């Protein structure tokens, strides 16, 4: 009958119609400018082609893969031909005149095409991330993209996330997943904490004992809830990434606009090194092993001695690392160097005298400057934790400030570029709730709203020329109490989402309630889709 025919046609048209477009007002991190256009939405189907200008060939395949994973639609990918007007297309365009800032993109959809214009790979990657948020998440084939123009660029140049793979070791697959999380959030730096008292996690060809000995420890502290007593799992624990693994991750990150900053932590935090090479220590003792308890580790000597063979070692190791990583910056640690061991060492004292150094702080600076010189020869700059400023240091070193606002401002006043990573509120190893049954964390309390309301620009610098030394900020993920990828995800989500907005979006547009709405509308469905664990009770806990 007519009635059934109409009903069937109605049903079919509902099933076959492209899925509704996603609203541009739900994007995270919030774009600088969104203009709704009075045109028809762009319909994307199997006929749509992804075109690219030559610098963005790999990003075109990246977009194709992500679109396919999200919608099931496998689009063709083709180079863009100059002068040819494309219809029914998604175009990745090199257009410095339209996107006239670093990392900027202009996304425009209407008239049957979506174009993303940028002047660099990062801009294209961010345009892609935004486009994917304009596409429905359900597994539909065809879909619509609303007619819209988005002009967008970051507020801060350095947007980082850190991961400690020493206290707990994570498979390469998870490191890549973590990089995908960063890319989604428009971060551009991954700080890879590769060495510490509790292990050495990167293959070094010239010093094989770093991997046969330093990469392994006898036991690991476990415990998952506050109520659980500390227990030790006596199984040998560890691992390391081969240089081939590292190359693979670097390549993976590069496609996603992410620079990887490796950290080799010296001259303190070197217990694992000393376990394999006791000759580099002030108090050589072959019975000491790789640490398996946490804390500022000076129970056993973890400080390198200023001997010729130590400096030879540092030159070689940093040489291998500098050759491997394209990053213009290499992190040399420099935090929490206990001066006790140098004080107690006649050899270190003699070295201090011989080199006219003021004291142990001067010796610490000497170490930093030596490594700085090795790296300068490789065209690299040094990043270190803020303790590297304890002595006088030349201003090319970038300071990663894990102390407060004032300390960050002081480093900038000394004309050092500064990355802000204050324990409060950017240590994501701290608690995000005060629920006594919450999963075990190290200490502190950094709930979601504290992260969201953080301003990386120290108060004392606002409106001052030195403000330009504040490059941005980073969330740190120390993994003493994160024994699995799921626990890392639980600690970073949703705090890293809040941080992405702190770093990317215009601080004038900050609104926590609106952030929560967009978090729930746009991002939490992604966590679920990624199969990621996340902290759910963020609405119950505020500062
Ligand atoms: C301090 S902050 C450390 C790390 C610990 C962390 C725990 C810094 C540069 N060093 O070694 O893992 O506290 O929150």
TrEMBL record:
It catalyses: Hydrolysis of terminal non-reducing N-acetyl-D-hexosamine residues in N-acetyl-beta-D-hexosaminides. One of its GO terms (molecular function) is beta-N-acetylhexosaminidase activity. Pfam families: Glyco_hydro_20, Glyco_hydro_20b. Residues 1-21 form the signal peptide. Keywords: Glycosidase, Hydrolase, Signal. Its EC number is 3.2.1.52. Gene3D superfamilies: Chitobiase/beta-hexosaminidase domain 2-like (3.30.379.10), Glycosidases (3.20.20.80). Belongs to the glycosyl hydrolase 20 family. This is beta-N-acetylhexosaminidase. It comes from Pontibacter cellulosilyticus.
């Amino acid at each position: 009958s007519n009635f059934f025919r109409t009903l069937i046609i109605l049903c079919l048209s509902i099933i076959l119609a492209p899925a509704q477009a996603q609203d541009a007002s739900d994007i995270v991190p919030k774009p600088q400018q969104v203009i709704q256009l009075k045109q028809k939405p762009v319909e994307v189907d199997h006929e749509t082609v992804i075109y690219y200008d030559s610098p963005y060939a790999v990003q075109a395949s990246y977009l194709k893969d992500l679109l396919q994973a999200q919608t099931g639609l496998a689009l063709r990918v083709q180079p863009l031909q100059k002068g040819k007007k494309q219809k029914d297309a998604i175009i990745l365009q090199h257009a410095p005149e339209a996107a006239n800032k670093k990392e900027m993109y202009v996304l425009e959809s209407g008239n049957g095409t979506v174009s993303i214009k940028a002047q660099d790979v990062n801009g294209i990657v961010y345009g892609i991330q935004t486009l994917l948020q304009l596409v429905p998440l359900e597994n539909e084939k065809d879909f619509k993209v609303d007619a819209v123009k988005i002009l967008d660029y970051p507020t801060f140049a350095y947007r980082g996330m850190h991961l400690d793979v020493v206290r707990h070791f994570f498979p390469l697959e998870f490191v890549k997943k973590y990089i995908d999380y960063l890319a989604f959030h428009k971060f551009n730096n991954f700080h890879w904490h590769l060495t510490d008292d509790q292990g050495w996690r990167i293959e070094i060809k010239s010093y094989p004992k770093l991997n046969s000995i330093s990469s392994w420890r006898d036991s690991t502290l476990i415990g998952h809830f506050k109520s659980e007593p500390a227990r030790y799992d006596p199984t040998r624990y560890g691992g390391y990434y081969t240089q081939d693994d590292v190359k693979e991750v670097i390549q993976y990150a590069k496609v996603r606009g992410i620079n990887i900053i490796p950290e080799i932590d010296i001259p303190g935090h070197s217990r694992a090194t000393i376990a394999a090479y006791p000759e580099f220590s002030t108090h050589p003792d072959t019975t000491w092993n790789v640490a398996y308890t946490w804390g500022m580790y000076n129970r056993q000597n973890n400080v390198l001695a200023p001997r010729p063979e130590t400096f030879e070692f540092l030159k070689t190791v940093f040489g291998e690392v500098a050759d491997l990583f394209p990053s213009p910056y290499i992190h040399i640690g420099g935090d929490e160097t206990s001066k006790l061991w140098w004080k107690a060492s006649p050899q270190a004292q003699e070295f201090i005298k011989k080199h006219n150094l003021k004291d142990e702080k001067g010796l610490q600076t000497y170490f930093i400057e030596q490594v700085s010189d090795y790296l300068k020869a490789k065209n690299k700059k040094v990043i270190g934790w803020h303790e590297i400023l304890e002595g006088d240091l030349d201003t090319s070193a970038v300071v990663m400030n894990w102390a407060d606002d004032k300390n960050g401002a002081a480093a900038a006043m000394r004309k050092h570029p500064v990355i802000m990573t204050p324990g409060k509120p950017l240590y994501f190893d701290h608690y995000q709730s005060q629920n006594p049954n919450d999963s075990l964390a190290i200490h502190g309390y950094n709930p979601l709203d504290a992260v969201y309301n953080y301003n990386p620009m120290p108060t004392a610098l606002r409106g001052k020329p030195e403000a330009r030394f504040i490059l941005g900020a980073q969330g740190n993920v120390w993994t003493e109490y994160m024994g699995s990828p799921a626990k890392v995800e639980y600690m970073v989500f949703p705090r890293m989402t809040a941080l992405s907005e702190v770093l990317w979006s215009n601080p004038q547009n900050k609104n926590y309630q609106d952030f929560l709405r967009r978090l729930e509308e746009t991002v939490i469905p992604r966590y679920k889709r990624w199969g990621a664990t996340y902290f759910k009770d963020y609405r119950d806990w505020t500062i």
